[in-house]
Every structure is written in structure tokens, then in C-alpha cells.
Amino acid sequence: MSDDILVLNLHRATLQLLERVGVGIDCDAALELLSAHSICVDWKRRRVHPDEEQIQRALSSLPRRIAVYGRSAECAITLDGSATFIMSGGASLRVHTLDGNYEAATWEHLRQFNILLDALPNIHMCVNQVDPTDEPQDNFYRRIAAEMFITCHKPLLFQVSDADDIAAILEMGSVVRGSRAALVAQPLFMVGLNAEPPLHIPKGVAEALLATSAAGIPLSVGHYGMAGVTAPGTVVGAVVHLNAVQLVAFVVSQLVRPGAPMCYTGFCGVGNMRTLDVTSASPHALRIMLLATKLGRFYGLPVYVAATSDAHQPDPQAACERATQVYALTHAGASLIQGPTSTMEQFMVSSFVQAVIDDEILGYVFAALTPPDTTDEAMALDATEEVLTDPWLKDLKFAGHSHTARYLREIQWQSRCFDYANPAAWQRAGAQSVVDRAAAIAKDILEHHFVQELPPAVAAELRRIATA
Predict the structure, then answer these.
(1) Which of 457-464's residues contact partners 24+ apart within 8 Å by CB, and which partners?
(2) Which H helix or E strand runs over 444?
(3) Are 194 and 293 within one domain?
């Protein structure tokens, strides 16, 4: 079956699912909004059933391009399907430290990861790498947002629990930008919400969806189903569930504010049927995300997915899962990939060493997927003739020709972790492993990299808003 026929069948199956089952929304304001626009609402079951015309109207008003800005203009990213950007992993409860221990995540770990992620060149956007556990959890997401605003200059993604969190974070962003209008014009962050599989949007999430859409801030609504547990046990069934929630979220968002920016969010997991735990990096989870990416591109939207690892420490499993997922999802046209920065053990563990290795993997994948130069000069016809006829080039051949020097970046990739030296040179350098080199790099960054924080007065105001 061709991809076009497959995604069309998935779309049609989603429409049938919405007609027969619908999506639950536990929020009177959202249900009233939908009902007021003639969308079928089953008030008794609190489920909504948008039809194809209503869905197409929402899809037609969604922007095809979403820009998220850092504190400086050079950090801005544009999500439109033409390039892939990487977001850090998020919300791990444990940390694999540089000395190999496992510790409960703390606020200090969060600050350390912010320093590390700031220095890694292939990380374009940040979410809190860990969820600190060492202090009371009051106003937790607001305090996370304040810390990220203060210590990160890259674009951000924030998780929230309700509309009150949205209001506080919007106030913080306005303080940093200077005004609400400036924040909307060049948003410093996007908001990541999570529905509750199967096919349910809880009250706080729905209220945050309404508030974020009204503000005009970029938004995603994930539906992290576990295939076989909280989603059907087939690839296409899990994708249809995921797609149904996406389409309903789009309808709600565009009724609140036509043109409100939203990503198509396609991450998921697969249930381990022996234990009912989630496996986030199995090949079948990747199959679901690849199919979801095709659906999102079918709708013409930027697609947001995840690339994680179920490994317990930096090892071959972590490298294999990360590289395979990033390569496949980038090649499929994903705009934003979350997680390729040390996230392991079903999002529960973050590792400083693996973060550096993952950045290297990202650089490798991006280098491999760089389109070739196809100019006449790059074809090297003149250079080939000269190498074969000039006696001065007999020994060095193309290595001695100026054409090779001009195109050096076309075939040379500069690695920091991976080792391409010959065996003798590797032995002379101490025969270090990739993990050894990554640990040394991470340690050096944490000791010497400087992250410019916000001015103290601004930081104090953000912390006041977060704890108010």
C-alpha cells in the first residue's frame, strides 16, 4: 500500500472513530464552546464528535509555520517541515552522575543540565531535563519555568497543569520580553500539554488548551498512548487514537483563536505485555511515530515527536535506539524531536555522559542527511582530468588538489567523542572509550562553560511570580 493511500485510510478511520466514540473532554467551557459552534457534544458522556467539515475548517486555519525564539535572535527555530530541530529530554526523576551513581533529581541537577545543554551545539530547544525532587512541589511548573527563563537562552517548552500555570508563565515571559505583545510576536516558549489515553482530555489540560490558544502561544497536545495497554495493540490502531485527539485539539484551538499555532504531536510508547510497563524506544513505538509523522505532514503541519532510550546507562543499546530513531524521524520530515539528550529508562533517568554522546549522534545524523552540493564544480570533472594528467599529483592524487581543499567540509566531519584515529594513535592517546571521552567533555563544560543569566532584578521578579 502506498503512503498516500495509507494516510488517507488512517484519516478516514479517525473520522469514523470520532463519529462512533468521540473524544472525552472534562471541561464545561470547552464543551460549551464546541456546542455553540454546532459541534456534536454528548453532555451525558462528556464526549465530542466533530465531523469532517468541522475538522477541515480547523486544519485550514492552522499555521503551517511556527517560530519559537530564544533570548537572542540567533537561537530562533522555525518549525515548518523543511528542517529538523532537537529539543532536550524532559522531566527525569533520577540522574546518572559523572561518577556513575544514580541520584534523585535536584534543582542543582537542573541547573547543571542547563549549562551542559547550553553548550551542546545540536540542541536547539530546552525543556526541563529533570523534575527536581528535593523541595516542596508547590507551584512546581511555575518554579521550573522561572528557573528555565533565568538560566537558558535557547527556545523553551513548558509543561503546565492548568490555566493558572499558563497565566503565570505568560506573565513571566512578558517580563522577559518587555510586554505581552512582544512575547506573542516573538514567543520565547511553547507549551506542551498531555491528554490522558485512551481518548480523554482532562479538565486542567483542556483549560490550559483554551488559555494558551487564546494567548496565541505555540502549543502541542500529546496523547502518549501505550499500545496494547492504553491504546490499541496495533500500529495503525494506536495512530488512529493519537490522531483523533490531535484533530479534536485542533478544532478547540481554532475556535478559540483562528490561526493559533499548534504542532501535530505524534509521540507514543508500547506496552510491555509481560509487566504492563511502557517501552518508549521499541521498534514498534518508532513505527507508530513514523506513521504519525506521515499523517502530520499529510495535514501540512509541523510534526513534534520523541526519540528516547530504554537503556539504563550509556551503552550500545542507548546509542542504537537514539541513532535509529533520530535518523528515521528526521528523514521522515519531523520538525521537532524531543528526548535525544540522555533521556533513558522510559524518561526516568538523565545522564550527563549520555547527553554528550547523544549530541555527537545528532551531529552524525545531521551530517549524513545534509544534501550534497550538485554544482558542476562539485562534480569534479576538471579536477579529475588534472589529477590523471598532472605529474605533480601522481602520488597524493586528490589529496594534493585544491578542489579537495575547497570542498573539505563536504566530506569531513569533526567529532568530539567518536574516534577515527588509527589503532596506534588511539593507543598512544590512552585508548579511551567513547564513554570516557564524553565524561571528560561533560566535566569540562560543567566546570568552564558560562551561561549568561537574566539580570538579578528580572530573575527576582520571575521567582516572585512563580511563588505568588
Answers:
(1) 458/175, 458/176, 459/146, 459/150, 461/175, 462/145, 462/146, 462/149, 462/150, 462/172, 462/175, 462/176, 463/143, 463/146
(2) helix 434-448
(3) yes
Instruction: Give 73-124 pLDDT, tens digit per residue.
Output: 889 999 999 999 999 987 899 999 999 999 999 999 999 999 999 999 999 9
The mean per-residue pLDDT over the stretch 365-383 comes to: 94
- Whether residue 198 is predicted with pLDDT greater than 80 in this model: the reply is yes
Q: Which residue has the cell 529533570?
A: 130
Q: What's the grid cell of residue 75? A: 537561537
pTM of the model: 0.95
Do 183 and 307 lie in a common domain?
Answer: yes
**Cβ atoms of 314 and 247 closer than 8 Å:** no
Q: Which three cell numbers stand for residue 457?
A: 532584578
Mean pLDDT, range 441-460, rounded to an integer: 95
CA 282 to chain centre: 18
| CATH number of the structural domain spanning residue 168 | 3.20.20.480
Say if 19 falls within a structural domain: no
Let me know if residue 441 belongs to a domain.
no
Mean pLDDT of the chain: 95
Q: Are residues 284 and 324 in the same domain?
A: yes
Distances (CA, A) of 145 to 68, 76, 157, 217: 16, 18, 9, 15
3-class secondary structure, 254:
helix
Query: What is the C-alpha to C-alpha distance for residues 123 and 357, in angstroms, rounded to an integer?
Result: 12
Q: How many domains does the chain have?
A: 2
Quick one: cell of 419? 574516534
Q: Model confidence at 350, in pLDDT bands (50, 70, 90)?
A: very high
Q: What is the domain range of residue 389?
A: 381-411
Same domain? For 248 and 340 the reply is yes
The grid coordinates of residue 406 equal 575547497
What is the per-residue pLDDT across 279-299, written as a single tens digit (0 to 9) for each?
889 999 999 999 999 999 999
CB 68 within 8 A of CB 218: yes
One domain, residues 292 and 404: no
What average pLDDT does range 343-355 have in this prediction? 89
CA-based radius of gyration for the chain:
24
- What SS3 class is residue 208? helix
